[in-house]
Amino acid sequence: MKMLTDIHNHSTFSFDGKNTLEDMLAAAQAKGVAFYGVSEHFDTDFFIYGMHKLRPDVTPTDAESYFHRARHLQDDYAGVMNVLVGAELGYCNLSQVHEEYKQMLQTYKPDFIVNSVHNLHGEDYYMTTPYYRDGKLRDKDEVLDEYFRLVRDSLDVPYHYDIVGHVGYVTRYMPCEDKTVCLDTHKEILTDILQTIIQKDKILEVNAARDALLPQKDILALYYKLGGRKVSYGSDAHVATNIMQRREKAVQMLKEIGFTHISVPCRGEHIAVEL
Ligand SMILES: [Zn+2]
Ligand SMILES: [Zn+2]
Fold first, then answer.
1. Handedness of CA 71, 77, 78, 84 (dihedral sign)
2. Interatomic CA distance for residues 201 and 148, integer angstroms
3. 106: buried, middle or exposed (CB in 10 Å: 19+, 13-18, 0-12)?
4. Are 77 and 83 contacting, i.e. CB atoms less than 8 angstroms apart?
5. Which of 59, 101, 171, 239 is least surrounded by Cβ atoms within 10 Å, i.e. has the fewest?
6. CA of 91 to the centre of ligand 2 (A)
7. What's the CA-to-centroid distance between 91 and ligand 1, angstroms?
8. Which ligand ends up closest to the CA of 235?
9. What are the tens digits of pLDDT across the range 47-86?
10. What's the pTM value of the predicted model, to 2 decimals?
11. Alpha-carbon span 205 to 200, nearest angstrom
12. pLDDT digits (tens, 9 = 90+) for 106-121
């Protein structure tokens, strides 16, 4: 059965969300979404590394308020729209952060988790600092390789996750004209990442935020060739008007590669929805 899914969204419970959760859900329903995933930010590394001092806009999500309100809204929408109450956990390699995430998962039992790399050991890709050393722009492939190794490490975190978020995020803020990844140059690490996603039975996200769909098409095609069939779509909307953005484009790309279904994670199960 064909149903619309959008399993990566933020509201004002996240520091960078622009619309309330109530408004986001109303907009999603108006757009005919059948499965709507809320994935508020949890980026504990920001506060442990002190990165928030450089970005005072970054504040932690209040887990108690978020889950409490979201569970109520989930009930309100029962039978109308499947609201999935999830979280996007920013990866870092500090065990202190892993323990905090584990604790949060145990306390609130989110319906799904997006595992995302946003930062490089205390440096924020958004702030572009990882692209420079000593004031000089680094070699693009070196930056990409470092990022992909971080993504590979993130797949082995000691807490549960369902979706591997926006692979290729590093390219989004890269201060250069050509933001494409040369697949041949990075094939070994990308193959490792994609095979690990398949082995661990995780879902590879197609993320539609900003201009380009992530991951790029040839990386998705490699995933398919290696046997990967589980993909999700996420608008990564931070404002109601962006819910479902570029979904048609994402679906078309997935169909061209050969995918037939979208996977919707819910409490450890993956629901297959026809593309
Ligand atoms: Zn993210
Ligand atoms: Zn996000």
1. negative
2. 19
3. exposed
4. yes
5. 59
6. 13
7. 10
8. 2
9. 999 888 888 889 999 999 999 999 999 999 999 999 999 9
10. 0.98
11. 15
12. 999 999 999 999 999 9
The ligand minimizing its distance to the Cα of 165 is 1
Report the domain count for the chain.
Answer: 1
We report the CATH number of the domain holding residue 15 as 3.20.20.140
Which pairs with CB-CB distance under 8 Å and at least 24 residues apart come from 46-49?
A: 46/90, 46/119, 48/92, 48/94, 48/96, 48/97, 49/92, 49/119, 49/121, 49/122
Separation between Cα atoms, residue 143 and residue 42, nearest integer Å? 24
Domain that holds residue 92: 4-274
State the average pLDDT for the chain: 97
Q: How far apart are CA 238 and CA 24, in angstroms?
A: 9
Q: Which ligand is nearest to the CA of 236?
A: 2
Question: Is residue 132 classed as helix, strand or coil in its secondary structure?
Answer: strand
Ligand 2 midpoint to CA 58 (Å): 13
